[in-house]
Amino acid sequence: MGPGCCSFFFCWGLGRGHGVGTSSSSLWNLMGNAMVMTQYIRLTPDMQSKQGALWNRVPCFLRDWELQVHFKIHGQGKKNLHGDGLAIWYTKDRMHPGPVFGNMDKFVGLGVFVDTYPNEEKQQERVFPYVSAMVNNGSLSYDHERDGRPTELGGCTAIVRNLHYDTFLVIRYVKRHLTIMMDIDGKHEWRDCIEVPGVRLPRGYYFGTSSITGDLSDNHDVISLKLFELTVERTPEEEKLHRDVFLPSVDNMKLPEMTAPLPPLSGLALFLIVFFSLVFSVFAIVIGLILYNKWQDQSRKRFY
Fold first, then answer.
1. Which is nearest to 250 in space by CA: 93, 140, 142, 160?
2. Which residues lie below 8 Å from residue 115, measured CB to CB, with a gap of 6+?
3. Sequence-ordered list of residues with C-beta below 8 angstroms from that of 98, at least 6 positions apart, any chain
4. Of 183, 169, 73, nearest in space to 129 by CA
5. pLDDT in the model for residue 262
6. Residues in Cβ contact with 80 at an 8 Å cutoff, skipping those fewer than 6 apart
7. Using CA atoms, how far apart are residues 286 and 280, in angstroms rounded to an integer?
8. To 5 degrees, how large is the angle CA 127–CA 129–CA 131?
9. Distance, CA of 176 to CA of 167 (rounded, Å)
10. Cα–Cα distance between 150 and 268 in angstroms, integer?
11. What is the pLDDT of residue 17?
12. Rounded distance between C-alpha atoms, residue 198 and residue 283, angstroms
């Protein structure tokens, strides 16, 4: 598999007529405080309490794919006085603002987080900014206080703020193998960040990116998003193993099962339950009285 095995699927980028907006012909939607600039989309400005997102309107039905993200994070904040970062999404739902880097919590799908601010004060083993990934079936919450550590699949340090050269992130999904690589050193070379086998992602989900600021802030800019279809050969055994799935999961990682809430009882159903409960209670009382009277009659006969 190489560059020659890729076909272009969609793109948003410089000078490509990306069509960001709300019209029916647009492939992209902006949300929140996101703004279209001359050469990029600014998800959030370097201001407090902002959030924004960019979502593709077309679901992705590719089996094997690669998403390349050209981004820039910069601002006036000094060390540990900036935040909060951005996320890249492949999820069932789109355009739902929330607390997880500007997107909804308990999402269904894949989230890749470029986290620029350490919330967990006591941790010392990881250096921020930090890139991590999470697969969710809708049952898990992202733990902000611990920087997502309880649910992350893996991660790496990625010094991406205030750089004078371009920064890139690539997400590759091939044969249920998830790979995330970074190009952030100005050398035009990919370096490994996360590699997880056995990742099962359904087809038909949406790509997007989002960001949020709180008391601390940064400019979070997306310069381009490029999705490629990867042509991969599979053996007959792999074809059987790689059948479509309907809920995200990771092999050897137990995710809590989603349980559907029971529908509320209708008025008729509630009436019938109460009615038959009363009938059963009366029937039980009558049977009890009959048996009690027979027992008393037999007791009298034995006495006389």
1. 140
2. 84, 85, 101, 128, 129, 130, 131, 132, 147, 148
3. 104, 105
4. 73
5. 44
6. 117, 118, 128
7. 10
8. 100
9. 26
10. 46
11. 41
12. 58
Sorted by where each begins, the domain ranges of the chain are 28-250, 265-299
Of 163, 67, 181, give the one whose Cα is nearest residue 116: 163
Token look-up 């960040």 returns 193
Q: Please tell me what DSSP assigns to residue 263.
A: P
Per-residue confidence (pLDDT) for residue 290, from 0 to 100: 76
Give the pair of three-digit tokens for residue 121.
């004060």
Q: Is 242:234 a contact under the CB 8 Å cutoff?
A: yes
Token pair for 52: 């924004």
* Distance in angstroms (rounded) separating the CA atoms of residues 273 and 269: 6
- Length of the chain equals 304
Q: Which residues pair with 177 in a beta bridge?
A: 174, 197
pLDDT tens-digit readout, 150-209: 999 999 999 999 999 999 999 999 999 999 999 999 999 999 999 999 999 999 999 999
Paired tokens of 291: 């048996």
CATH class entry, domain 28-250: mainly beta
- What is the average pLDDT value for the chain, to the nearest integer? 86
Average pLDDT of 215-242? 94
Amino acid present at 194: I
Has this prediction a pTM greater than 0.85? no
Contact between residue 82 and residue 40 where contact means Cβ atoms under 8 Å apart: no
